[in-house]
Amino acid sequence: MSSSEIIVPISADSHITEPPDCYSARIDKAWADKAPHIVNDPKMGEVFRIPGLDRPIPMGLIAAAGRDPKDLKYKTHNYRDLHPGGYDATKRLADQDRDGVFGEIIYPSVGMLLCNHPDFDFKRACFNAYNLWLEEYCDHAPGRLFGMAQIAMRTVEEGIADLQDLKARGFRGVMMPGEPALSDYHDPIYDPFYEAAVALKMPLSFHILTSSGAGIAPTRGPKINGFQSIIRGNQDILGTFIFGGVFDRHPDLKIVCVEADAGWAPHWMYRADHAYNHHRYWMKCDELQRMPSDYFKENIYLTFQDDWSAFKAKDELNVERLMWANDFPHSDATWPRSQEILAQQTQDLTMHEKQRILRDNVRDLYDLPIPDAPHMKEAAHA
Q1: Listed residue (244, 167, 155) closest to 203, CA to CA
Q2: Does pTM surpass 0.90?
Protein backbone atom coordinates (compact mmCIF):
# COMPACT_ATOMS: atom_id res chain seq x y z
CA MET A 1 0.00 0.00 0.00
CA SER A 2 1.43 3.35 -1.01
CA SER A 3 1.69 6.25 1.43
CA SER A 4 -1.14 8.01 -0.42
CA GLU A 5 -3.41 5.04 0.35
CA ILE A 6 -2.76 4.93 4.09
CA ILE A 7 -5.96 5.67 5.96
CA VAL A 8 -5.54 7.48 9.27
CA PRO A 9 -8.80 6.62 11.06
CA ILE A 10 -11.13 8.74 13.14
CA SER A 11 -12.58 7.03 16.18
CA ALA A 12 -16.37 7.39 16.19
CA ASP A 13 -16.54 6.50 19.90
CA SER A 14 -13.87 7.41 22.43
CA HIS A 15 -14.25 8.59 26.00
CA ILE A 16 -12.92 10.89 28.63
CA THR A 17 -12.46 10.19 32.32
CA GLU A 18 -14.28 12.89 34.22
CA PRO A 19 -11.83 14.64 36.59
CA PRO A 20 -12.72 14.81 40.30
CA ASP A 21 -13.97 18.41 40.00
CA CYS A 22 -15.78 17.99 36.66
CA TYR A 23 -19.18 18.48 38.27
CA SER A 24 -18.45 20.07 41.64
CA ALA A 25 -16.56 23.04 40.16
CA ARG A 26 -19.16 23.80 37.46
CA ILE A 27 -22.58 22.70 38.64
CA ASP A 28 -25.29 25.24 39.40
CA LYS A 29 -24.97 26.46 42.99
CA ALA A 30 -28.41 25.10 43.83
CA TRP A 31 -27.00 21.59 43.36
CA ALA A 32 -23.52 22.17 44.81
CA ASP A 33 -24.06 19.92 47.84
CA LYS A 34 -25.22 17.03 45.61
CA ALA A 35 -22.65 17.21 42.82
CA PRO A 36 -21.03 13.90 41.83
CA HIS A 37 -17.68 13.67 43.61
CA ILE A 38 -14.78 11.35 44.34
CA VAL A 39 -14.68 9.36 47.58
CA ASN A 40 -12.36 6.61 48.76
CA ASP A 41 -14.13 3.28 48.98
CA PRO A 42 -12.34 0.69 51.13
CA LYS A 43 -13.03 -2.06 48.60
CA MET A 44 -12.84 -0.27 45.25
CA GLY A 45 -10.47 2.65 45.86
CA GLU A 46 -11.40 6.08 44.53
CA VAL A 47 -14.90 6.06 43.07
CA PHE A 48 -17.46 8.60 41.92
CA ARG A 49 -20.30 8.92 44.40
CA ILE A 50 -23.57 10.16 42.91
CA PRO A 51 -26.45 10.99 45.26
CA GLY A 52 -29.54 9.15 44.11
CA LEU A 53 -27.71 6.16 42.62
CA ASP A 54 -27.36 3.08 44.80
CA ARG A 55 -23.88 2.13 43.72
CA PRO A 56 -20.74 4.24 43.36
CA ILE A 57 -18.98 4.26 39.99
CA PRO A 58 -15.58 2.55 40.15
CA MET A 59 -12.97 4.00 37.83
CA GLY A 60 -10.71 1.00 37.25
CA LEU A 61 -12.35 -0.35 34.07
CA ILE A 62 -13.18 3.12 32.79
CA ALA A 63 -9.51 3.78 32.11
CA ALA A 64 -8.04 0.32 31.59
CA ALA A 65 -7.16 0.51 27.88
CA GLY A 66 -4.05 -1.45 27.02
CA ARG A 67 -4.01 -3.60 30.13
CA ASP A 68 -3.64 -7.35 30.02
CA PRO A 69 -7.13 -8.90 30.39
CA LYS A 70 -5.83 -10.75 33.44
CA ASP A 71 -5.24 -7.41 35.14
CA LEU A 72 -8.69 -5.89 34.54
CA LYS A 73 -10.49 -4.97 37.76
CA TYR A 74 -12.90 -2.42 39.16
CA LYS A 75 -10.53 -1.21 41.85
CA THR A 76 -8.40 1.90 41.42
CA HIS A 77 -6.14 2.93 44.27
CA ASN A 78 -6.23 6.57 43.24
CA TYR A 79 -7.09 8.79 40.33
CA ARG A 80 -3.45 9.19 39.31
CA ASP A 81 -3.46 5.52 38.25
CA LEU A 82 -5.73 6.35 35.30
CA HIS A 83 -4.69 7.30 31.78
CA PRO A 84 -3.92 11.04 32.08
CA GLY A 85 -5.18 11.64 28.52
CA GLY A 86 -8.63 10.73 29.78
CA TYR A 87 -8.90 13.94 31.79
CA ASP A 88 -5.97 16.05 30.57
CA ALA A 89 -6.40 17.17 26.96
CA THR A 90 -2.78 18.29 26.72
CA LYS A 91 -1.79 14.62 26.90
CA ARG A 92 -4.58 13.26 24.71
CA LEU A 93 -2.94 13.85 21.34
CA ALA A 94 -0.02 11.61 22.30
CA ASP A 95 -2.56 8.84 23.00
CA GLN A 96 -4.10 9.40 19.58
CA ASP A 97 -0.72 9.35 17.87
CA ARG A 98 0.33 6.16 19.64
CA ASP A 99 -2.83 4.46 18.31
CA GLY A 100 -2.49 5.94 14.82
CA VAL A 101 -5.77 7.84 15.19
CA PHE A 102 -6.22 11.35 13.80
CA GLY A 103 -9.26 12.43 15.81
CA GLU A 104 -11.98 11.19 18.15
CA ILE A 105 -15.67 11.67 18.82
CA ILE A 106 -15.68 12.08 22.59
CA TYR A 107 -18.29 10.57 24.94
CA PRO A 108 -18.46 10.64 28.76
CA SER A 109 -17.80 7.82 31.20
CA VAL A 110 -19.48 8.70 34.50
CA GLY A 111 -22.04 10.57 32.39
CA MET A 112 -23.16 7.31 30.82
CA LEU A 113 -24.41 6.04 34.16
CA LEU A 114 -25.82 9.45 35.06
CA CYS A 115 -28.28 8.95 32.20
CA ASN A 116 -30.04 6.42 34.45
CA HIS A 117 -30.54 8.86 37.34
CA PRO A 118 -34.24 9.11 38.24
CA ASP A 119 -34.15 12.87 38.99
CA PHE A 120 -34.22 14.70 35.66
CA ASP A 121 -33.62 18.09 37.29
CA PHE A 122 -30.44 16.82 38.93
CA LYS A 123 -29.45 15.05 35.74
CA ARG A 124 -29.73 18.24 33.69
CA ALA A 125 -27.65 20.17 36.23
CA CYS A 126 -24.93 17.52 35.98
CA PHE A 127 -25.04 17.48 32.18
CA ASN A 128 -24.77 21.27 32.02
CA ALA A 129 -21.68 21.11 34.23
CA TYR A 130 -20.19 18.30 32.17
CA ASN A 131 -20.77 20.17 28.91
CA LEU A 132 -18.85 23.15 30.29
CA TRP A 133 -15.92 20.90 31.17
CA LEU A 134 -16.08 19.04 27.83
CA GLU A 135 -16.02 22.33 25.97
CA GLU A 136 -12.83 23.30 27.82
CA TYR A 137 -11.29 19.89 27.14
CA CYS A 138 -11.98 19.85 23.39
CA ASP A 139 -10.87 23.47 22.94
CA HIS A 140 -7.28 22.27 23.49
CA ALA A 141 -7.36 20.53 20.10
CA PRO A 142 -10.52 21.57 18.21
CA GLY A 143 -9.33 19.86 15.03
CA ARG A 144 -8.92 16.46 16.69
CA LEU A 145 -11.25 16.35 19.71
CA PHE A 146 -14.99 16.50 19.03
CA GLY A 147 -17.22 16.27 22.07
CA MET A 148 -20.76 14.94 22.16
CA ALA A 149 -22.65 17.10 24.64
CA GLN A 150 -25.24 15.52 26.94
CA ILE A 151 -28.85 16.63 27.21
CA ALA A 152 -31.47 15.42 29.69
CA MET A 153 -34.67 15.71 27.59
CA ARG A 154 -36.91 16.96 30.39
CA THR A 155 -39.22 18.63 27.87
CA VAL A 156 -39.39 19.03 24.12
CA GLU A 157 -38.99 22.80 24.31
CA GLU A 158 -35.95 22.54 26.54
CA GLY A 159 -34.43 19.90 24.28
CA ILE A 160 -34.73 22.22 21.30
CA ALA A 161 -33.20 25.10 23.26
CA ASP A 162 -30.34 22.82 24.30
CA LEU A 163 -29.68 21.79 20.70
CA GLN A 164 -29.56 25.42 19.60
CA ASP A 165 -27.27 26.45 22.46
CA LEU A 166 -24.88 23.52 22.00
CA LYS A 167 -24.70 24.02 18.24
CA ALA A 168 -23.78 27.68 18.81
CA ARG A 169 -21.02 26.57 21.20
CA GLY A 170 -19.41 24.37 18.56
CA PHE A 171 -20.73 20.92 19.45
CA ARG A 172 -21.51 18.72 16.44
CA GLY A 173 -23.95 16.28 18.00
CA VAL A 174 -25.56 15.28 21.28
CA MET A 175 -25.71 12.19 23.43
CA MET A 176 -29.25 11.33 24.47
CA PRO A 177 -30.42 9.57 27.63
CA GLY A 178 -31.86 6.13 27.00
CA GLU A 179 -35.25 7.34 28.25
CA PRO A 180 -36.69 10.85 28.13
CA ALA A 181 -38.69 12.39 30.97
CA LEU A 182 -42.00 12.28 29.12
CA SER A 183 -43.39 9.52 26.89
CA ASP A 184 -41.07 7.40 24.76
CA TYR A 185 -39.13 8.66 21.77
CA HIS A 186 -41.60 7.54 19.11
CA ASP A 187 -44.32 9.83 20.46
CA PRO A 188 -45.20 12.60 17.94
CA ILE A 189 -44.74 15.17 20.73
CA TYR A 190 -41.02 14.92 19.93
CA ASP A 191 -41.49 15.83 16.27
CA PRO A 192 -40.45 19.49 16.77
CA PHE A 193 -37.28 18.28 18.50
CA TYR A 194 -36.42 15.97 15.61
CA GLU A 195 -37.13 18.75 13.13
CA ALA A 196 -34.68 20.96 15.04
CA ALA A 197 -32.02 18.21 15.10
CA VAL A 198 -32.29 17.85 11.31
CA ALA A 199 -32.29 21.60 10.68
CA LEU A 200 -29.27 22.13 12.94
CA LYS A 201 -27.46 19.06 11.53
CA MET A 202 -27.03 17.64 15.04
CA PRO A 203 -27.06 13.81 14.96
CA LEU A 204 -28.56 12.13 18.03
CA SER A 205 -26.42 9.46 19.70
CA PHE A 206 -27.57 6.66 21.98
CA HIS A 207 -24.75 4.97 23.87
CA ILE A 208 -24.88 1.60 25.58
CA LEU A 209 -25.54 1.52 29.35
CA THR A 210 -27.73 4.63 29.25
CA SER A 211 -31.09 2.86 29.57
CA SER A 212 -32.63 1.54 32.76
CA GLY A 213 -32.03 -2.18 33.05
CA ALA A 214 -29.32 -2.08 30.37
CA GLY A 215 -26.44 -2.80 32.71
CA ILE A 216 -24.05 -5.73 32.79
CA ALA A 217 -25.75 -7.73 35.53
CA PRO A 218 -27.01 -11.04 34.08
CA THR A 219 -30.57 -12.17 34.57
CA ARG A 220 -29.21 -15.68 35.11
CA GLY A 221 -26.01 -17.69 34.97
CA PRO A 222 -22.41 -16.64 35.65
CA LYS A 223 -21.66 -12.94 35.92
CA ILE A 224 -19.91 -12.82 32.53
CA ASN A 225 -23.26 -13.67 30.92
CA GLY A 226 -24.26 -10.08 31.59
CA PHE A 227 -21.78 -8.85 28.98
CA GLN A 228 -24.02 -10.37 26.31
CA SER A 229 -26.96 -8.19 27.37
CA ILE A 230 -25.25 -4.79 27.04
CA ILE A 231 -26.40 -4.09 23.48
CA ARG A 232 -30.06 -4.95 24.14
CA GLY A 233 -30.95 -1.49 25.43
CA ASN A 234 -29.77 0.10 22.20
CA GLN A 235 -31.61 -2.42 20.06
CA ASP A 236 -34.82 -1.53 21.86
CA ILE A 237 -34.25 2.18 21.19
CA LEU A 238 -33.67 1.59 17.48
CA GLY A 239 -36.86 -0.45 17.27
CA THR A 240 -38.76 2.33 19.02
CA PHE A 241 -37.74 4.79 16.32
CA ILE A 242 -38.34 2.40 13.42
CA PHE A 243 -41.64 0.79 14.43
CA GLY A 244 -42.86 4.08 15.88
CA GLY A 245 -42.76 5.69 12.43
CA VAL A 246 -40.26 8.40 13.42
CA PHE A 247 -38.25 8.03 10.23
CA ASP A 248 -41.39 8.26 8.10
CA ARG A 249 -42.10 11.62 9.69
CA HIS A 250 -38.42 12.68 9.64
CA PRO A 251 -36.64 10.94 6.76
CA ASP A 252 -33.47 13.01 7.21
CA LEU A 253 -33.07 12.28 10.92
CA LYS A 254 -29.77 10.56 11.78
CA ILE A 255 -29.45 8.31 14.83
CA VAL A 256 -26.13 6.91 16.05
CA CYS A 257 -26.08 3.59 17.90
CA VAL A 258 -22.87 3.80 19.92
CA GLU A 259 -20.67 0.94 21.14
CA ALA A 260 -23.31 -1.73 20.60
CA ASP A 261 -21.28 -3.39 17.81
CA ALA A 262 -22.74 -4.10 14.37
CA GLY A 263 -22.33 -7.75 13.42
CA TRP A 264 -25.77 -8.55 14.84
CA ALA A 265 -27.57 -6.02 12.63
CA PRO A 266 -28.36 -8.21 9.56
CA HIS A 267 -30.27 -10.71 11.68
CA TRP A 268 -31.98 -7.93 13.64
CA MET A 269 -33.18 -6.37 10.37
CA TYR A 270 -34.43 -9.73 9.14
CA ARG A 271 -36.39 -10.24 12.36
CA ALA A 272 -37.76 -6.70 12.20
CA ASP A 273 -39.01 -7.20 8.64
CA HIS A 274 -40.46 -10.57 9.61
CA ALA A 275 -42.26 -9.06 12.59
CA TYR A 276 -43.67 -6.26 10.46
CA ASN A 277 -44.88 -8.60 7.72
CA HIS A 278 -46.39 -11.26 9.96
CA HIS A 279 -47.29 -9.71 13.30
CA ARG A 280 -48.02 -6.01 12.98
CA TYR A 281 -51.79 -6.49 12.94
CA TRP A 282 -52.13 -8.18 16.30
CA MET A 283 -49.02 -6.65 17.93
CA LYS A 284 -50.02 -3.19 16.72
CA CYS A 285 -47.56 -1.12 14.73
CA ASP A 286 -47.82 2.00 12.66
CA GLU A 287 -48.22 1.36 8.95
CA LEU A 288 -44.78 2.18 7.57
CA GLN A 289 -43.98 3.54 4.15
CA ARG A 290 -40.95 1.24 3.84
CA MET A 291 -39.66 -1.94 5.45
CA PRO A 292 -37.94 -1.69 8.86
CA SER A 293 -34.62 -2.76 7.34
CA ASP A 294 -34.77 0.14 4.89
CA TYR A 295 -34.91 2.67 7.73
CA PHE A 296 -32.16 0.85 9.59
CA LYS A 297 -29.81 1.00 6.62
CA GLU A 298 -30.52 4.64 5.84
CA ASN A 299 -31.13 6.45 9.14
CA ILE A 300 -29.02 4.55 11.66
CA TYR A 301 -25.25 4.68 12.06
CA LEU A 302 -23.46 1.94 14.02
CA THR A 303 -20.17 2.31 15.86
CA PHE A 304 -18.06 -0.70 16.81
CA GLN A 305 -14.53 -1.48 17.89
CA ASP A 306 -13.26 -5.08 17.98
CA ASP A 307 -16.08 -6.59 15.91
CA TRP A 308 -14.72 -8.61 13.02
CA SER A 309 -18.23 -9.84 12.30
CA ALA A 310 -19.20 -6.28 11.32
CA PHE A 311 -16.60 -6.26 8.54
CA LYS A 312 -17.63 -9.74 7.42
CA ALA A 313 -21.30 -8.69 7.27
CA LYS A 314 -20.64 -5.43 5.41
CA ASP A 315 -22.45 -6.56 2.25
CA GLU A 316 -25.64 -7.13 4.27
CA LEU A 317 -25.32 -3.71 5.90
CA ASN A 318 -24.78 -0.21 4.55
CA VAL A 319 -21.07 0.55 4.33
CA GLU A 320 -21.98 4.25 4.42
CA ARG A 321 -23.38 3.83 7.95
CA LEU A 322 -20.65 1.83 9.68
CA MET A 323 -18.15 3.74 11.83
CA TRP A 324 -15.13 2.20 13.50
CA ALA A 325 -14.05 3.29 16.99
CA ASN A 326 -11.24 2.53 19.43
CA ASP A 327 -13.21 3.12 22.69
CA PHE A 328 -10.17 4.63 24.43
CA PRO A 329 -9.59 4.61 27.40
CA HIS A 330 -12.18 1.99 28.42
CA SER A 331 -11.41 -1.64 29.17
CA ASP A 332 -12.93 -2.80 25.87
CA ALA A 333 -10.70 -0.47 23.85
CA THR A 334 -8.51 -1.56 20.95
CA TRP A 335 -5.93 1.06 22.00
CA PRO A 336 -2.96 0.91 21.57
CA ARG A 337 -3.27 -2.00 19.10
CA SER A 338 -5.88 -0.52 16.77
CA GLN A 339 -3.61 -0.53 13.71
CA GLU A 340 -2.66 -4.17 14.21
CA ILE A 341 -6.29 -5.21 14.70
CA LEU A 342 -7.54 -3.19 11.75
CA ALA A 343 -4.84 -4.58 9.44
CA GLN A 344 -6.20 -8.04 10.14
CA GLN A 345 -9.91 -7.30 10.20
CA THR A 346 -10.08 -5.06 7.11
CA GLN A 347 -7.87 -7.15 4.84
CA ASP A 348 -10.82 -8.20 2.65
CA LEU A 349 -12.28 -4.70 2.28
CA THR A 350 -11.84 -2.51 -0.76
CA MET A 351 -10.05 0.81 -0.34
CA HIS A 352 -13.37 2.62 -0.71
CA GLU A 353 -14.94 0.51 2.04
CA LYS A 354 -12.00 1.14 4.37
CA GLN A 355 -12.14 4.87 3.75
CA ARG A 356 -15.85 5.02 4.50
CA ILE A 357 -15.81 2.89 7.65
CA LEU A 358 -12.55 4.14 9.17
CA ARG A 359 -12.76 7.84 8.32
CA ASP A 360 -15.22 9.33 5.86
CA ASN A 361 -18.54 8.24 7.39
CA VAL A 362 -17.84 9.85 10.75
CA ARG A 363 -16.22 12.88 9.15
CA ASP A 364 -19.18 13.47 6.85
CA LEU A 365 -21.84 12.77 9.48
CA TYR A 366 -20.46 15.42 11.85
CA ASP A 367 -19.01 17.69 9.15
CA LEU A 368 -15.57 17.51 10.75
CA PRO A 369 -12.78 19.81 9.50
CA ILE A 370 -10.52 16.90 8.59
CA PRO A 371 -8.81 16.51 5.19
CA ASP A 372 -9.09 13.45 2.98
CA ALA A 373 -5.59 12.26 3.84
CA PRO A 374 -4.51 13.57 7.26
CA HIS A 375 -0.95 12.80 8.36
CA MET A 376 -0.13 11.99 11.95
CA LYS A 377 3.15 13.88 11.98
CA GLU A 378 1.35 17.03 10.92
CA ALA A 379 -1.55 16.29 13.23
CA ALA A 380 0.69 16.08 16.26
CA HIS A 381 1.48 19.79 15.85
CA ALA A 382 -2.08 20.90 15.04
Answers
A1: 167
A2: yes
